């Protein structure tokens, strides 16, 4: 006999779940998607993986770019990183049909082309889906032999909401 489930709370509300091992009630954010949000995500995914398309991973952190710049004796400044990203994004128009989506780094979301257009708007105008790296990098995992773990789960919901609002 199958029991019916209670209705889910609105997006972002908290739901109490029972942990099966301890039967202790624990607060858990249980966001779910509306049918409209599901369709939006499905449409985005289809655009990114359309035949002949790929993803441009332009989400290098300032530290990763520093290593790349050091190898060519370039100073790791915000302006040089902006110019580097602009070079990637404004490549020959023959590249444009091959890119379905671009992953940006936090800093990049707020940078602009030489003529003042925000990079995310520039890319969207060319039919590319814009995404953003939402984690905060890796740190050593205590008690392991050099393994790392990802930072940034705290505040993830708020960051994602802000990034969506910002483009």
In short:
The protein is of the alpha/beta class and 167 residues long. It is 34% helix and 19% strand.
Q: If you average the pLDDT, what whole number results?
A: 84
Radius of gyration: 20 Å
Q: Uncertain regions: pLDDT < 50 for 5+ in a row?
A: 8-20
Q: Please tally the β strands and state the result.
A: 7
Layout: helices, strands, pairs:
Blueprint: E1 14-18, E2 25-29, H1 35-48, E3 54-58, H2 62-70, H3 78-89, E4 99-104, H4 106-109, H5 119-125, E5 129-132, E6 138-140, E7 148-150, H6 156-166
Task: Write structural notes for this entry.
Pathway: Carbohydrate degradation; glycolysis; D-glyceraldehyde 3-phosphate and glycerone phosphate from D-glucose: step 4/4. InterPro entries: Aldolase_TIM (IPR013785), FBA_I (IPR000741). With 167 residues, the chain is of the alpha/beta class. It has a domain of 80 residues. The chain contains 6 helices and 7 strands; from the N terminus they run ββαβααβααβββα. Strand 1 and strand 2 form a beta hairpin. The radius of gyration is 20 Å and the shape is globular. It starts with 13 loop residues before the first strand and ends with a helix. About 8% of the residues have low confidence.
């Amino acid at each position: 006999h199958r029991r019916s489930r209670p209705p889910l709370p609105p997006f972002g509300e908290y739901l109490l779940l029972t942990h099966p091992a301890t039967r202790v009630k624990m607060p858990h954010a249980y966001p779910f998607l509306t049918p409209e949000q599901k369709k939006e995500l499905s449409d985005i995914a289809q655009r990114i993986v359309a035949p002949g398309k790929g993803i441009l991973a332009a989400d290098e952190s300032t530290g990763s770019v520093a290593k790349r710049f050091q190898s060519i004796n370039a100073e790791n400044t915000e302006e040089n990183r902006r110019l580097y990203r602009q070079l990637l994004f404004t490549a020959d128009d023959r590249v444009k049909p091959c890119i379905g989506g671009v992953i940006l780094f936090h800093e990049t979301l707020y940078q602009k082309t030489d003529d003042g257009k925000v990079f995310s708007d520039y890319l969207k105008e060319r039919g590319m889906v814009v995404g953003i790296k939402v984690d905060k990098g890796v740190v050593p995992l205590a008690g392991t032999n050099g393994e790392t773990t990802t930072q940034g789960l705290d505040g993830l919901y708020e960051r994602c909401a802000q990034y969506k609002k910002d483009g």
